[in-house]
Amino acid sequence: MQSKDQKYDSKFIRKSLRFSSDEYAKVEAQLTTLGVNFTNFAKNAIINHQITIPIQMDLIYELNRIGNNLNQIAKSINSGEKIPVLTQLVEIEKQLQKLQYKQEV
Questions:
Q1: Mean pLDDT (10-residue bins), the chain, 105 residues
Q2: pTM here?
Q3: How buried is 84 (Cβ within 10 angstroms: 0-12 exposed, 13-18 middle, 19+ buried)?
Q4: How far apart are the first and last CA of the chain?
Q5: Cβ neighbours of residue 91 under 8 Å, at least 6 residues apart?
């Protein structure tokens, strides 16, 4: 027969968190203010709140320019023009290098 702890552990998945001293002080302050225990607080925070990822608009702008150039290349290829295609490919390569540089910085 399983003990109470073994039954409990088999029903749930356990995860651990690490906090810096400052982070944990903020959590403790919120726990005190709300009057809840850490488990309920963490579950509520994780399940009921959406995580937003900051968008770097300059990178989206660069990707949009590259996409526009690719569309122009496709149009040129379909119309039989060869020289503008090479020029646009060089431009795309420059933009990709600039984008890669931004990611490294």
A1: 64 87 93 91 86 77 85 79 72 81 68
A2: 0.41
A3: middle
A4: 59
A5: 69
